[in-house]
């Protein structure tokens, strides 16, 4: 498990609205995302497929996304290398200050080793912070 937190200078409600927006528009929050397709959309979950381009190559993945205030969970349904989930949690610290925490719980399908990519998690959190504060 890898976790990164930061404080966003925005209200809890604004951050939550952006996390919900992120479900269908992840390219504004996660580096390297493109070709986002919403496959299924229900009141309590969304199935999403997207492409992620990194230095190591291009990955196409499918996720089941669930959301309840104030947690969004991105469960890997189809990924060539990993299984697991990512949680986005938020909590109010003060007026117009909200803590955002991303936790990645992925394991390698072949080795069962935990994915320990701190920089990836940190970059996703900081990109999310910047997008929320600028919009």
Quick summary of this structure?
The N and C termini lie far apart (30 Å). Strands 1-7-6-5-4-3-2 form a seven-stranded antiparallel β-sheet, covered by helices on one side.
Question: Which key phrases capture this entry?
Answer:
135 residues; 2 helices; 22% helix; single chain; 53% strand; alpha+beta; globular; 7 strands
- As a percent range, the share of strand residues is over 45%
Provide the spatial order of strands within the biggest beta sheet: 1-7-6-5-4-3-2
Counting helices, strands and paired strands, the structural category is alpha+beta
Q: How many β-strand runs?
A: 7
- N- to C-terminal distance: 30 Å
Helix content class: 10-25%
Largest sheet: 7 strands, antiparallel
